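User: Second chain of the day. Same drill as before.
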Amino acid sequence: MNRYEARTPRLAFAVIALVLSGTTMAAMVGAPAATCCDPAWLASRKPAVEVAISPSHIDVVAKREAVKVAQLSTPHVD
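Assistant: Same format as last time:
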């Protein structure tokens, strides 16, 4: 009996997947990290602006009714 052999080798796809993963990681993580820590870039940044948030707090008011355990465990039947 002849065994079925796929035309596309799995090893080649695995290597290509690893190369593309490494390229993506370098582009999305490595490149921004390399440009972030440049001292000239940090010196050119503007200081943070202080803002006022109004209202500065939120009051949450709630009321909860007391529920007995027997009411929770028995099904409601009409």
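Residues 26 and 32 are 9 Å apart (CA to CA).

User: Great, on to the next one.
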